[in-house]
């Protein structure tokens, strides 16, 4: 029997790891790289100073402050998890989609 209370936690951890594993600022087609580059450019230095202690954080470090905005589905049918920056400063999310077997299928930037 599956522990349904553990599945959201497991999938959130898998999604966070997939975001970090797939992060490459040189990949222009990467939704994660687009999300990070866009927000480093658009948000004021004071935001980064408050959240991260520096006015221009390392791009990879931005991934460490992502917050779970929400996810779809219940139990083993969770389809996607959306992550965003803290403080309601953006409508954009990094969306991690899972396939029917619970494996990460796609990572994209969405609004």
Structure keywords:
about 110 residues; alpha+beta; four-stranded antiparallel beta sheet; 4 helices; 4 strands; about 20% strand
Task: Give the secondary structure arrangement, pairings included.
Elements: H1 7-21, H2 31-42, H3 45-52, H4 59-62, E1 67-71, E2 80-84, E3 93-98, E4 104-110
Antiparallel strand pairs: 1-2, 2-3, 3-4
Structural write-up:
This protein is an alpha+beta fold. The protein has one domain (7-110). The chain is 35% helix and 21% strand. It has four helices and four strands, in the order H-H-H-H-E-E-E-E. The protein has a four-stranded antiparallel beta sheet with strand order 1-2-3-4. A hairpin with an 8-residue loop joins strand 2 (80-84) and strand 3. The protein is globular. The N and C termini lie far apart (36 Å).
What string gives the helices and strands in order?
HHHHEEEE
Radius of gyration equals: 15 Å
The helicity comes to 25-40%
**Helices and strands: which structural class?**
alpha+beta
N/C terminus separation: 36 Å
Strand content: 15-25%
| General shape | globular
The side-by-side strand order for the widest beta sheet comes to 1-2-3-4
**Tally of domains:** 1
Characterize the main sheet. Answer: 4 strands, antiparallel
| Secondary structure tally: strands | 4
Average predicted local confidence, pLDDT: 92
Unreliable spans are none
Number of DSSP helical runs: 4
